[in-house]
Automatic annotation (TrEMBL):
Coiled-coil residues: none
Keywords attached to this entry: Oxidoreductase
MF (Gene Ontology): oxidoreductase activity
UniProt-listed Gene3D superfamilies: Heme oxygenase-like
Domain of life per record: Bacteria
Protein name: Iron-containing redox enzyme family protein
Pfam families for the chain: Haem_oxygenas_2
Gene source species: Candidatus Nitrospira nitrosa
InterPro entries from the UniProt entry: Haem_Oase-like_multi-hlx, PqqC-like
């Protein structure tokens, strides 16, 4: 029966899954309701779980020798993440730390801290998927789930156009970290880099996964992404609890 799942049905199943990548506490992190200490907890966990090592995850998948066009996309993604060579010339993990310094968080505080048990579980799953013998399962986990968001369906329906510098600066000026937490826009090069390279990025990820996943393992890809979602939601619950954010009844 799995062999009869069409590409269009597979794509729709992926999008339905991503429609649910939203956490109840996310609005707290996108507003001015968090204290400086709460922000630090959030960013420390994100950095250790996937931000710091994202280029490494992708390199493991590339090492499984996928087809040429998939290698090209993964290599381009690694190049940007590790060097910033397609945008601002600095790696994304480094740009993240620069942003953190702008929030008055020291670099050392991102090397030595307590990783929540739920964060360790999610991170262990990401490591496992990056090493998976079927490269497309790892690619789906990282390029669809980790890099994607609840906005993926909209992005595929109406892809973002490449933004002009003035448009990027306007977005930065209304970013929650600038508006509510006093972050100097000069420290927001991570956001600038994302905006410079993201046009069409989601479409490329879905095109790769949908077209290179053999029909027989499409259900396996969906199973992996469902587990990714479950672990991510549990991880975000733990971050919210650590920040003292109570779930609405």
């Amino acid at each position: 029966m799995s062999a009869h799942m069409t590409k269009s049905a597979f794509l729709e199943s992926l999008l339905q899954l991503m429609d649910n990548k939203h956490h109840w506490a996310w609005d707290h992190f996108a507003s001015g309701r968090l204290t400086h200490t709460q922000l630090k907890i959030h960013f420390q966990q994100e950095y250790a779980v996937y931000v710091r090592d994202f280029p490494i995850f992708l390199a493991r998948i590339l090492g499984k020798n996928p087809p040429s066009s998939a290698r090209h996309m993964l290599a381009e993604n690694i190049y940007e993440e590790e060097t910033g060579g397609l945008s601002l010339g600095t790696s994304h993990p480094e740009l993240f730390l620069t942003m953190m310094e702008g929030l008055r968080f020291s670099r050392n505080s991102f090397e030595r801290f307590h990783l929540l048990p739920e964060a360790r579980s999610y991170r262990a799953w990401l490591d496992r998927m990056s090493y998976h013998r079927d490269w497309v399962l790892g690619a789906a986990t990282f390029t669809i789930f980790v890099e994607g968001s609840v906005k993926d369906r909209t992005e595929l329906t109406a892809p973002s156009k490449k933004k002009q510098p003035k448009e990027i600066e306007a977005l930065i000026n209304i970013h929650p970290l600038v508006r509510y937490h006093g972050l100097n826009p000069n420290r927001m090069d991570l956001i600038r880099a994302h905006q410079l390279v993201e046009a069409g990025h989601r479409h490329d990820a879905y095109h790769m996964v949908v077209n290179y996943t053999p029909p027989a393992i499409r259900p396996s890809v969906l199973t992996c992404l469902r587990k990714s979602l479950a672990l991510w939601l549990t991880y975000r619950d733990a971050v919210a609890k650590s920040c003292g954010i109570t779930k609405p009844s």
